Amino acid sequence: MTPAAHQSQHAPELRATARHLGRRRFLTGTAAAAALAFTVNLPAAGTAAAAELDPARLTDDPFTLGVASGDPLPGSVLLWTRLAPAPYQADGGLPAERITVHWELARDETFRRPVRRGTALAHPEFGHSVHVQVDGLENDRVYYYRFKAGTWISRTGRTRTAPALGAQAAALTVGVVSCQRYDQGYFTAYKHLAEDDVDLVLHLGDYLYEYAVSGVGGARAYPAGTVPTVYGHEMVTLDDYRLKYALYKSDPDLLAAHAAHPFVVTWDDHETENNYAGAVSENDDPAEEFLIRRAAAYRAYWENQPLRRPQLPDGPDLRLYRRLHWGRLAQFDVLDTRQYRSDQAYGDGWRVPGPESEDPARTLTGGAQERWLIDGWHRSRALWNVVPQQVTFAQRYNSTAVPSQVSMDSWDGYPASRERILAGAQAAGVENLMVLTGDVHVHYGFDIKRDFADPASKTLGTEIVTSSISSGGNGSAKPANWATFMAANPHLKFYNGLRGYATVSLGRDLARADFKTVPYVTTQGAPLTTAGSFVTEVGDQGLKPA
After folding, report:
1. Which of 91, 101, 172, 362 has its CA 20 to 30 A from that of 220?
2. Which residues form the Phospholipase D N-terminal domain (predicted)?
3. Are residues 207 and 292 in the same domain?
């Protein structure tokens, strides 16, 4: 079924009211949410008072999608699960009834030292997902958690709280991941990450892909018919997105990584549609149609990720940018470079910059998010200011020609937006800036120059770009353009095209980045190798081999 045909399955009343929405009305109020009838608040009192599912009717394991935790705060954890005894059905194999879910938090994985327990309701309006915020805990401590529904008990998850805001934390290690396309390979890197010694994981987007998945799972080459036919079309509706999350979360290595570490997530484009920009779809579909699709995608994203209450979607809007702290050691300003951006210049792709891309009015973040970021830097008391985000921030030429082409989808396609950010960091006195990036399916290590046209200009910080988990297939250590990119970009210090993830360890004196790779993803069992290691010193930014 084509995407256009699938869009026609949206409720007629939603499509009718959506036609009255302008392309950017969704940015100016809640009218879009009301019109689209996708406001994600607590279910109405009448719904909440409806019949509750008898636990005896849960005859199959409802915890097939695993458990997760996210956004650790001082004294607070966020716990997630979603009930789906039949994950490849649109309703998860559950009736439209609420279900009581019990949760437990303990100091040990045997639960002999319990700390808290309680119940939460899994509502069908939320796809029977559960988001439990547990407050009043000790700072900077590891905890274990699990859920129970009926007679079924979930696997055990491990999470942690952040240090107190003023604490002089000595160290922090994060895993950095991005781009996991199910049909292009196994998630083997997650198996290794689950066993790695990290405090938390930053997921920088493309958690799933909207494209169809064949019955053999693409490159996974399962026996024909292993993947249900429901995945044989591009996802467009709310049911489509919910089902695709279930497919991805069926991967045992992804399940293990979520259970092992708390995640901090942000999206890029494929959680909704490739290279969309704000309310502009890739194929310039009518805005009223695309906003319905975006509302469905955003709602499914919240349902399937360990996100806190402020990230509840409001129709086709969801404020995903947010700030987290790790004591006085690090401030994390998590960005959303997809929802508020101007449309890509020159029709997208790799193009020579010109008046259209260099228009000062163009933005990648939107004005409100840009001000929020820079204001946050002015107030920051952290040693390291870290910006987890989606697309390549540093200048990236694809040839040594003058002028060279650059990617219109990355910050190179929005140079005025990048200049405002760099000027804001300099004005705020940010001395140890680190940008963390995904999207491009390769490992890069960049120095962030105040003026990329002048290699001798001040280095304001570093950018660590992580490769994909599986997107792009096996890849290669030295892609065909390796020599060209290294020559054309003197601030590029490392480039590797294999799949994997990065770890970044922040300390009081320096930060260390390790680029980790697997040699293949189209078959299982690949070993993990550290392909490159670099440090950048406090007060002396710039990547140096470790």
Report:
1. 91
2. 65-161
3. yes
